[in-house]
Amino acid sequence: MVNSSKKPFVCEACGKAFTQKGTLRVHEKVHTGEKTFVCETSGKVFTTKVSLRKHDRVHTGEKPFSCKTCGKAFTSHSHLREHERVHTGEKPFVCETCGKAFPYHSYLRIHDRVHTGEKPFSCKTCGKAFTSHSHLRVHERVHTGEKPFVCETCGKAFTEKASLRHHDRVHTGEKPFICETCGKAFTKHSQLRLHDMRVHTREKPFVCETCGKAFTEKSSLRIHERVHTGEKPFVCETCGKAFTGKRSLRKHDRVHTGDECN
């Protein structure tokens, strides 16, 4: 029950109570849809002066909220709070299905689709669907050939920022992922996981549904499945011969270093 002496101003539409009449008036706009504060630069309208002030920073470039740990600045206090989780490691958003935790609600929403199977973002070129818009954007570069992330040391370009970060370690020699069993270090977490399965656990989690053969890597399973489907997506540009895997095509390419195709 709302204490009317403490919150005497009650919304007639939903019953929510407020301590000040001005706060009630702002709240009522949620129901009426009224937006009275207009941005003079873009014409965008807002229900509160605070929302307009925050929006204004898009145009002014003002970022008054700075991280005390790394100095990065933000337009709003809420964005700063979210960023601070990078340093604290806080992950307040937990998946109810598997218990995995995330620093941002948006990450949890995307993760939920792993369980629901929902893939709302589809490629207009090939129809392939994705759980997030960012994954779709990265995929679209397969068709456009765009590689916007360029290594400053050697000029090699990549479709994803993460791929560039991994590549940078070739130059820096950084190997941040260390095997707890033998101490061997790796540039990528996927390499560490693969090493652990191959050397220590002998785990082969990827199993062919047709013949039951198991593999340590998903990519190896995909290549193997082509034995059953007959798919040969890697084609020699010189002679047209097709192969199930990229490695087989590369090996075949050596035939053309002076010899004709049989």
TrEMBL record:
Q: Which residues form a coiled coil?
A: none
Asked if Nucleus is a keyword of the record, the answer is yes
GO cellular component annotations, sorted alphabetically?
nucleus
One Pfam match, given by its short name, reads zf-C2H2
What taxonomic ancestry is recorded? Eukaryota, Metazoa, Echinodermata, Eleutherozoa, Asterozoa
Chief location of this protein?
A: nucleus
- SUPFAM superfamilies associated with the record: beta-beta-alpha zinc fingers
Provide the C2H2-type domain boundaries. 9-36, 37-64, 65-92, 93-120, 121-148, 149-176, 177-205, 206-233, 234-261
- Which protein, by its recorded name, is this? C2H2-type domain-containing protein
User: Which InterPro entries does this UniProt record tie to the protein?
Assistant: C2H2-ZF_Transcription_Reg (IPR050717), Znf_C2H2_sf (IPR036236), Znf_C2H2_type (IPR013087)
**PANTHER family according to UniProt:** ODD-SKIPPED - RELATED, ZINC FINGER PROTEIN 208-LIKE
Q: Where in the cell is it found?
A: Nucleus
Q: Known PROSITE patterns for this protein?
A: ZINC_FINGER_C2H2_1, ZINC_FINGER_C2H2_2
Q: Which UniProt keywords apply?
A: Metal-binding, Nucleus, Repeat, Transcription, Transcription regulation, Zinc, Zinc-finger
Give the family this protein belongs to, as stated in its UniProt record. Belongs to the krueppel C2H2-type zinc-finger protein family.
Record-level Gene Ontology MF annotations: DNA-binding transcription factor activity, RNA polymerase II-specific; RNA polymerase II transcription regulatory region sequence-specific DNA binding; zinc ion binding
Q: Which SMART domains match?
A: ZnF_C2H2 (SM00355)
